[in-house]
Amino acid sequence: xxxxxxxxxxxxxxxxxxxxxxxxxxxxxxxxxxxxxxxxxxxxxxxxxxxxxxxxxxxxxxxxxxxxxxxxxxxxxxxxxxxxxxxxxxxxxxxxxxxxxxxxxxxxxxxxxxx
Length: 115
Prior knowledge:
The protein has 115 residues and is of the alpha+beta class. The protein has helices at residues 23-38, 99-107, and strands spanning 44-49, 54-59, 68-72, 83-87, 92-96.
């Protein structure tokens, strides 16, 4: 017979799970972020881990709305892809199952003509 903790006990196993970026995903995202910071394009970021998805937000200045959002939505794994890059206006710039492929839409911003 197993003993269940009372329902008012704060550390029950029925707590909702959160979606998070793992170490490899954060490494890829922060690598791109570091290159863009070095170019002076981006200056701040924020990470939110929610029940259904995780978001990495990229800012040009701290007090602004995010320029881009990199989202991880595991429920869309079989449909449209787990990762998405969303622009400032809410438009989905790229979606897919491979984070490196999805981040390429932002890496294009690194390529600039030489004056």
